[in-house]
């Protein structure tokens, strides 16, 4: 929390309540996110000047704290109000010219030790949690800008991690990733349908000539004697042969296994 101790030391003599300490913490969070305090009150004053310190009279009204801030580039201004309600402080920030409004309610006793208001090492309780609360509740646009900046600085990381439509690289890998079958595996049927951009074979129709099993040497483009003339099947075309490949191609007459011997009625022959 670099800088907070120096701020606390500059105002410790004017701190008289736990609410003062909490307002000073919120002030420090705003300053370290690129803003400087202009002064008190709702309207600009002749005494306004940019400073990282709290202005004179910042805690003169314990029921309503009002502070104004401006960004380093002058494009954004904040009007900050903190209202005391019992043991809580209700913060409200108006961001101009965007007209964005944010608010946050903080239980003072959860983060400030009222018995040690003058001791910097003991007055704050759970400062890390308080920082997260202020950033998320009062300065949400600051957090979103930081996230955008991080994404711009790491465009490749964003593309590889956050893009749900990213297509995996088509470059061959020496070692297939777990869960991706070798495209030449016998059981790779359906792979091309599941990953149409992979450039690998294996659709829902199993081609016996490209399934990975040993080939019989049968070439349908050369024709099938008695069935198809040469050239009937284009070279390289997928072809479902008539019957078993290489079986019964040139057998004359009926197959002996088609009919039982005359007069023999044993179906289990």
3D architecture notes:
This protein is of the alpha+beta class and 269 residues long. Among the domains are: 4-138, 3-Layer(aba) Sandwich (Protein Transport Mog1p, Chain A); 187-212, no CATH class. 25% of the residues lie in helices and 15% in strands. It has eight helices and five strands, in the order ααβββββαααααα. A five-stranded antiparallel β-sheet has the order 1-2-3-4-5. A hairpin with a 3-residue loop joins β4 (88-96) and β5 (100-107). The model has no long low-confidence stretch (mean pLDDT 77). Residues 145-165 have a biased composition (Basic and acidic residues). It is found in: Cytoplasm; Endoplasmic reticulum. One of its GO terms (cellular component) is endoplasmic reticulum. Pfam families: PI31_Prot_C, PI31_Prot_N.
Index terms:
alpha+beta; cytoplasm; acetylation; methylation; single chain; endoplasmic reticulum; 269 residues; 8 helices; Protein Transport Mog1p, Chain A; phosphoprotein
């Amino acid at each position: 929390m670099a800088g907070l101790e120096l701020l606390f030391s500059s105002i410790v003599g004017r701190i008289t309540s736990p609410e003062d300490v909490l307002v000073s913490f919120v002030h420090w969070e705003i300053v370290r996110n690129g803003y400087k305090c202009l002064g008190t009150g709702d309207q600009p004053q002749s005494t306004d000047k940019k400073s990282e310190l709290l202005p004179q009279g910042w805690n003169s009204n314990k029921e309503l704290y009002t502070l104004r801030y401006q960004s380093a580039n002058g494009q954004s201004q904040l009007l900050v109000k903190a209202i005391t309600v019992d043991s809580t402080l209700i913060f409200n920030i108006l961001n101009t010219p965007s007209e964005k409004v944010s608010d946050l309610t903080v239980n003072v006793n959860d983060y400030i030790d009222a018995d040690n208001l003058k001791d910097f090492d003991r007055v704050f309780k759970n400062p890390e949690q308080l920082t997260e609360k202020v950033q998320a509740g009062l300065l949400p646009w600051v957090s979103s800008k930081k996230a955008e900046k991080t994404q711009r600085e790491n465009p490749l990381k964003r593309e590889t991690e956050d893009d749900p439509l990213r297509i995996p690289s088509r470059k061959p890998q020496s070692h297939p990733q777990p869960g991706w079958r070798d495209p030449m595996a016998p059981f790779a049927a359906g792979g091309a349908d599941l990953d149409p951009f992979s450039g690998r074979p294996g659709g829902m129709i199993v081609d016996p000539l490209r399934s990975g099993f040993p080939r019989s040497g049968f070439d349908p483009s050369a024709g099938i004697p008695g069935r198809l003339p040469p050239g009937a099947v284009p070279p390289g075309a997928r072809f479902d042969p008539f019957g078993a490949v290489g079986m019964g191609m040139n057998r004359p007459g009926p197959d002996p296994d088609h009919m039982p011997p005359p007069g023999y009625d044993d179906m289990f022959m």
